[in-house]
Amino acid sequence: MIDFHCHIDLYPDPKKVVELIDEAKIYVLSVTTTPKAWSKTNLLSKGKPRIRTALGLHPQIAHERLNELGLFDRLINETKYVGEVGLDGTSEYKFHLPAQLQAFKHILRTSTHAGGKILSVHSRKAENEVLDTLGLFPDAGITVLHWFSGPQKQLKRAIDMGCWFSVGPAMIRSMNGKSLVQIMPKDRILLESDGPFVNISNRPALPTDMELVARELGLLWSLSVNEVKQIIMNNFNTICKIGHDERH
Ligand code: MN
Predict the structure, then answer these.
(1) Ligand 1 centroid vs 34 CA: distance in angstroms?
(2) Burial of 222 by CB count in 10 Å (0-12 exposed, 13-18 middle, 19+ buried)?
(3) Ligand 1 center to residue 160 CA distance, Å?
């Protein structure tokens, strides 16, 4: 199984989460929210080949951390993965959109110069702006839109642009989320927990919960859990191959 967007470093006991992932043999993309967090988070998964640590600058804090963009550039060649990055246009953060945009463009430019990355991208209430910006950097890499919740029109545009999607527990539970997932190409879907920011049964979601998401996807697609898992694993192998990440 896979979890393509999990904030391992933000759980109360990250080491325990790493052990859990290791025992369950789950492939996890461990995303970070600031360049400063990358090295320590990467150390958490030392000797755990199924966990990859992405270099990120979360749009909700980008305006406070523009001074870490230099560190982002210095770390870029350490990983194939960038995330969590993107734009957030919700009322609390839209005031900072110019700074978010400055950070996001910088990150996409650096990713382009580095030869392309696999990016986990946040687009909440800024779907149009995210796609416009991605369009300016066609060689930045492969975009995986995480928890895409935007209008269908923007979803169709994202599909046409070649974006991938990571689908999590919250999406699969909401009516809007389900209708969006129905439109997404099956061969460009990955799973995500977005833990610890998403709750399942009053506790933070974990990579081990991806089984539940696979079951819900099965109901939506009229497929068995095993068939869904097969599709997800095939997709994962495909994205690793086109992203030149040799997996074990
Ligand atoms: Mn997240």
Answers:
(1) 12
(2) exposed
(3) 24
CA of 14 to the centre of ligand 1 (A): 15
Q: Where do the DSSP E strands lie in the chain?
A: 2-6, 27-30, 51-53, 81-86, 117-122, 141-146, 164-167, 189-191, 199-200, 203-204
d(Cα 23, Cα 17) in Å, to the nearest integer? 10
SS3 112: helix
Q: Residue 122 Cα, ligand 1 centroid: separation in angstroms?
A: 7
Q: pLDDT tens for residues 26-38? A: 999 999 999 999 9
Residue 248 has pLDDT above 60, yes or no: no
Residue-wise pLDDT for 32-67, tens only, equals: 999 999 999 999 999 999 999 999 999 999 999 999
**Ligand 1 centroid – CA 136 distance (Å):** 24
Pairing of strands 199-200, 203-204: antiparallel
